[in-house]
Amino acid sequence: MSASRIACLVAGALAWAAAGAAAQTDPRLTDAVRVAQEGRGDSARAAVQRLLAATPPTDTLYPQILYTQAMVAGSAGEMRRQLQRVTVEYATSNWADDALLRLVQMDYATRNYEGAARNLERLRLDFPSSPLLPQAAYWAAHNYFDSNNPAAACRWLADGMAQSRDDIEVQNRLGYLYQRCELHADSAAPAGATDTTRADTTARTAARTAADTAPPGQPAPAAAAAPLARTVYRVQIAAVATQRAADEAARKARGLGLTVVTIEEKGLYKVRAGEYPTREAAQNAAASLKTRLGGSPFVVEQP
After folding, report:
1. Which of 4, 78, 198, 293 is surrounded by the most beta carbons within 10 Å?
2. What is the CA radius of gyration of the chain?
3. Which residues pair with 302 in a beta bridge?
4. pLDDT of 235-272, one tens digit each?
5. Domains within the chain, CATH numbers bracketed
């Protein structure tokens, strides 16, 4: 993949995440970014280089200049070098978590999944309070799903949704990806199917045992029929990592007059609303709840 292609992918990917990322605070750097966006990259790079040369490395503005230099770089290699300088030389600055996220995006664009994973975990460990973590969760999900590690992807998504409750756009993006976690969990170990299968198997085993042990010439006693499970449909409105976040989601649903159940499963609190006799009725409710609550509600089937 060409350097220009990488730069385009990263620039496009940053568009939706811009709201949560830090922005240049010095007007000279803000102007340089604007000039680069207008297609005058050489002028932008020259302006940033002049400012870098005139600023002592000990100045708090210095890491911001390096970060801006990466954003207006003319090649992917130069962009990476400047971002790495920020993460190594200025690891405690306000720009280090931004630089790590940009490196994650670059690694993912080149299918360097291991490199992206290293920077993701460093971002999580070194900056546990970073406002960029919900956005990092979006990239972590793509990276780990593509590298066949759905458990890590779902863990990041759950944490990201828990930390972005006030950002509906981010919630929608993460919630959409989290549906893959539900599908994976259902295909791996569907709780309802397991219970039903176990009941059916027990009934069949009992019937065979009764037939084998019945006296000759006498009919085998009827085995107790397995109870028939009643299928209901609910709408899952949240899957979050903390009880507090689950309680908040449940409170909002109850405020709409809905019954709510919360299930703790695989380290997540799954909040499900309503009880519908058909999938169609639940799907209609899910569409309504998306408008009223936001997020990405979807239908789940429960016995």
Report:
1. 293
2. 27
3. 232
4. 888 888 888 888 888 888 888 878 889 988 877 888 88
5. 3-184 (1.25.40.10), 232-302 (3.30.70.1070)
